[in-house]
Amino acid sequence: MTAVVDTDPAPAHGVRAGAFGNATHLICRECGANAPLGPFYACTECFGPLEVGYEFPQISRERIEAGPRSIWRYAPLLPVPADIATFRSTDPGFTRLVDARNLADDLGLKQLWVKDDSGNPTHSFKDRVVAVALSAARELGLQVLACPSTGNLANAVAAAAARAGIKSVVLVPHNLEKQKILASAIYDTTLIAIEGTYDDVNKLASEIAAEEEGWAFVNVNVRPYYAEGSKTLGYEIAEQLGWRLPDQVVVPVASGAQLTKIDKGFRELIKLGLVEDRPFVIFGAQATGCSPVAQAFRAGQDFVAPVKPDTVAKSLAIGNPADGPYVLDVVRRTGGAVADVDDDTLVANIQRLARTEGIFAETAGGVVVGVTAKLLADGVLNPEGETVVINSGDGLKTLDAVAARVGPDITIPPRYEAFIDFWKERNS
Amino acid sequence: MSATVRIPTILRTYTGGAGEVSADGSTLAEVLNSLEDSHPGIRARILDDAGALRRFVNVYVGDDDVRFIGGLDAKVTEGTRISIIPAVAGGADS
């Protein structure tokens, strides 16, 4: 499961034994150089992103099934201590896997499941990654949990810090919608509105992370640990299918980390003998107004040229996705693709998922369902294959996207005659 | 032209620990050459063997990502602030 460690694998000074569970070192995804476990995120050789490496013991299905109904049932596969469940966190994960027969019929798919991560404590998959980042911050002695964000991540960081009883600071663009500001501010975080775009906020966060000691910017300086939290999506899908991998998965792509970690999770389960070693195909979904990875895929490139985002799918609006090249690697290796749909189509597919399955997805969910339909129409997705699509967040967070599309059918006075006139006409 | 260059933590071994240094040039390429003259070895950490910006480093001239303003040919004016930042910083969401 792990490369030979050619540098000292001991954790950074001052970290307790077992702080990172079965994780043994950090490894550069670009050049393969190793680094010790610590608050490091960029390779000192080439600036490449660091990733957690492990030496896993034998782990049984029974041991996992006996664990808590949260991501901590997979603690031996994460960079967290064995006693992680005893610490206060939001205990995210183990969200429902919905048998989506109506949507399957509507799309022309034989078997479809929706992994509905809107069921997490702050209603997006971000609770998974933040919980693992919080553990790393605690073990590394960092006192402030922080992030740059446009919404979901800020909500998750503020809630996790509140639950853990530590300080949090979230940086957001100053023109963020009121509902997103309130959904973070309610947790009594320090919320700093920055006069700039999300890219400006992100740049500032990187500079603060470099200069200030004691801060854990979850998606910057503890990113190697944070990103591992997304593996649990892959683990849960396999376990909920009865310890089996699906034939194909459609995943939203912003930075691309979620897609690459679902792949990593599946491959770990195979190597540990927890699921049968059989082929799976991973597809990526983007909004056309921010589709740098889809464009690179179509052009046959192995690099991603940055774009300026212009889409209602704000949670996917990363113009320069850090994991973009690795997304291309994964989809090409598994025989998948990256495709995109425009804003009208993604909104129509938010409605389609709601209408067919009673699931109200945020914009990213509309992107995933829309891209699934497109890949089927193009003959890229196999209609006979068992398929899982990811809904990464709750539609209540992106009400503006659908506000112009849905509403009252009619407004009537409070009289029976008025009602029955409408009802007869409706059903005539 | 004299510019101020913000140095990321992982490159401060080349600048004696300094987080900010001065360098000269009217383009980003010239500034990096100047930086190399004062701090030998640092340019090869920012550029790859072919002389292009490494995939996982972001360079900003003022507030602009140089990938949108000409890359290494990006114009540098007197007093410009240049930031070199690892690109792993994630995005808004997925």
What does this 3D model show about the protein?
The complex is a heterodimer of chains A (428) and B (94). Chain A is α/β, with parallel strands linked by helices. Chain A has helices spanning 61-65, 101-107, 126-139, 152-164, 178-185, 198-211, 223-228, 231-240, 257-271, 292-299, 324-334, 343-357, 363-377, 399-402, 416-426; strands at 23-28, 34-35, 50-54, 97-99, 111-116, 144-148, 167-173, 190-194, 215-217, 248-252, 281-287, 338-341, 386-391. In chain A, β6 (144-148), α4 (152-164) and β7 (167-173) form a beta-alpha-beta unit. In chain A, α2 crosses α12, α8 (231-240) crosses α9 and α9 (257-271) packs across α11. Chain A is globular. The longest helix of chain B is centred in the middle third of the chain and has 11 residues, at 28-38. Chain B is built from 2 helices and 5 strands, in the order ββααβββ. Chain B has a 5-stranded mixed β-sheet with strand order 2-1-5-3-4, with helices on one face. The model of chain B is unreliable at 89-94 (pLDDT under 50). Chain B has one domain (2-86): Roll (Ubiquitin-like (UB roll)). Chain B has helices at residues 28-38, 43-46; strands at residues 2-6, 20-24, 57-61, 64-65, 81-86.
Strand fraction of chain A? 5-15%
Give the integer mean of the pLDDT values of chain B.
Answer: 89
Task: Summarize model confidence as the mean pLDDT of chain A.
Answer: 93
CATH topology of chain B, by name, is Ubiquitin-like (UB roll)
Class of secondary structure makeup of chain A: alpha/beta
Give the key terms.
heterodimer, A: 428 residues, alpha/beta, Rossmann fold, 2 domains, 36% helix, B: 94 residues, alpha+beta, Ubiquitin-like (UB roll), 2 helices
Give a topology summary.
The complex is a heterodimer of chains A (428) and B (94).
Chain A: E1 23-28, E2 34-35, E3 50-54, H1 61-65, E4 97-99, H2 101-107, E5 111-116, H3 126-139, E6 144-148, H4 152-164, E7 167-173, H5 178-185, E8 190-194, H6 198-211, E9 215-217, H7 223-228, H8 231-240, E10 248-252, H9 257-271, E11 281-287, H10 292-299, H11 324-334, E12 338-341, H12 343-357, H13 363-377, E13 386-391, H14 399-402, H15 416-426
Parallel strand pairs in A: 5-13, 6-7, 6-9, 7-8, 10-11, 10-13, 11-12
Antiparallel strand pairs in A: 1-2, 1-3, 4-5
Helix pairs in contact in A: 2-12, 3-4, 4-5, 8-9, 9-11, 10-11, 12-13
Chain B: E1 2-6, E2 20-24, H1 28-38, H2 43-46, E3 57-61, E4 64-65, E5 81-86
Parallel strand pairs in B: 1-5
Antiparallel strand pairs in B: 1-2, 3-4, 3-5
